[in-house]
Design a protein that fits this description.
With 280 residues, the protein is α/β, with parallel strands linked by helices. The protein has one domain: 3-Layer(aba) Sandwich (UDP-N-acetylmuramoyl-L-alanine:D-glutamate ligase), CATH 3.40.1190. The protein has eight helices and nine strands. It has a nine-stranded mixed sheet, with helices on both faces. The longest helix is centred in the C-terminal third of the chain and has 17 residues, at 241-257.
């Protein structure tokens, strides 16, 4: 009998029947990097490639019990947290991950495919900021999502800058903040976008990229899962986040370039394009 050698990753997320987002998407990405995923379901979705029609949240006690049983049996190399559902979910997850401070924690809390969470959104974002962000190794969010989160500690103000909001999050204890999809004017007829990784010393990486034609479901989830897997493989507390991000972005670009249309809705990234022998 051979002992387990693949890095284990614990993922908190929704169960998506399409497999475009959530824990099913994470499992595919982790596998592509030679990691084994352990999953904790936070909600069950009803939806297709076009939209999510309904959500059934999992009881917070079940979320906690799923994670505790796994963590008491196995040692994980990284933890990934997707979109939470309610303050009780956030509280339960924050309590669990606080027992594993040396394990890299990648937090990707916004998922555009999910319906708006309504009036409870403000309380959820405040709990997210207070309980999970201080424990996070890498926080992923777009510029719009950063602005939404920042409104939990300040009033909307044109004078406030992206960098000031990032500095606030870093001061809470978050090690890195990755802001995705920011405008980055480029040459030619198409403007570029950029992903910028911030750390305590400022900008760690700034990577322009050219948007692809088409509408995708799970592009951000692919990037955060790839980053998680690469940091898990580095070991020793996650290693070099900047180096992992570079490889994760290259992988995500390939998965999007070979995306598949399963139904009548959005394209789904092909997370196994390398295993299928497709060019990046």
């Amino acid at each position: 009998m051979q002992n387990q050698t693949s890095p284990l990753i614990l993922s908190f997320g929704v169960s998506d029947p399409v497999g475009a987002i959530g824990i099913q998407a994470d499992l595919a990405v982790f596998s592509a990097f030679g990691c084994h995923g352990l999953t904790v379901s936070t909600a069950l979705l009803i939806g297709d490639t076009a939209r999510v029609e309904d959500i059934q949240e999992v009881d917070p006690d079940w979320v906690s019990d799923q994670a505790r049983v796994l963590l008491e049996d196995m040692a994980v190399a990284a933890i990934k947290i997707g979109a939470p559902f309610g303050v009780e979910h956030i509280t339960a997850i924050a309590e669990i991950v606080s027992d594993y401070p040396d394990v890299p924690l990648i937090l990707d809390p916004f998922t555009s495919a999910l319906p708006e969470q309504g009036i409870d959104g403000e309380e959820m974002l405040t709990a997210l900021r207070q309980l999970l962000v201080p424990q996070t190794t890498v926080l992923l969010l777009s510029q719009v999502e950063l602005e939404r989160l920042a409104e939990t500690w300040r009033d909307p103000d044109p004078a406030d800058t992206l960098r000031a909001d990032v500095d606030y999050l870093l001061a809470l204890g978050c090690e890195f903040v990755l802001v995705t999809g920011t405008p980055n004017p480029g040459q030619g007829e198409h403007a570029l976008r950029a992903n910028t990784l911030f750390g305590s010393d400022g900008v760690v990486r700034h990577d322009p990229w050219q948007p692809l034609a088409g509408s995708f479901s799970g592009a951000g989830a692919t990037l955060s899962a790839a980053l998680t897997a690469l940091m898990a493989r580095q070991g020793d507390g996650g290693g070099d986040a900047a180096l992992a991000l570079r490889a994760a972005q290259d992988y995500t670009a390939g998965a999007l370039a070979h995306a598949q249309r399963f139904g009548m809705g959005k394209l789904v990234p092909n997370r196994l394009f390398r295993q299928l022998g497709l060019a990046a």
